[in-house]
């Protein structure tokens, strides 16, 4: 019987940075969403994405392909979605957009930027997968449970849940600032 996990796959899937990032995100949302926590999470995620994940991916995509590089994280994910291996322009531009979070995560106009980036993230995810689904998923490996449920559903589901929670947090913050909310609060 063929082994599902070998040591290199397990190491690339469960790196300490990935595990700590997911645990920190889960702990923050379990304790409640506070603007300072969101700022720290955005800064950490931006740094992580820009310098450790998306930055090297974009660089390798511009100077060659991920398939010929030593980017084991992206090579492993490329087993689930082939477009990440061969410099697909849509995928590369999504990587560039993820780097924008690093620049805007701590400004006063954070909610405007947060809403914009969250909507862009959700739209980008839709535009990444929907055309492939309509074409019969030629680039997606849905035959193996690991690639389908962990790589495609879980890891991409995080990019739906977190922007959704951040949109909700921005909605509540902006609602509290609206004059009609302030007036109704004074009447009570």
UniProtKB/TrEMBL annotation:
This protein's UniProt keywords: Membrane, Transmembrane, Transmembrane helix
Predominant localisation class: membrane
Annotated GO MF terms: cholestenol delta-isomerase activity
GO CC term, one of those recorded: membrane
Matching Pfam families: EBP
Listed transmembrane segments: 107-126, 146-168
Cellular localization per UniProt: Membrane
Domain EXPERA, first and last residues per copy: 44-167
GO BP: any one term: sterol metabolic process
Membrane-topology descriptor: Multi-pass membrane protein
Statement: the UniProt record of this protein carries the keyword Endoplasmic reticulum: no
PANTHER family the UniProt entry points to: EMOPAMIL-BINDING PROTEIN-LIKE (PTHR14207:SF1), STEROL ISOMERASE (PTHR14207)
Protein family according to the UniProt entry: Belongs to the EBP family.
Protein's name according to its UniProt entry: EBP like
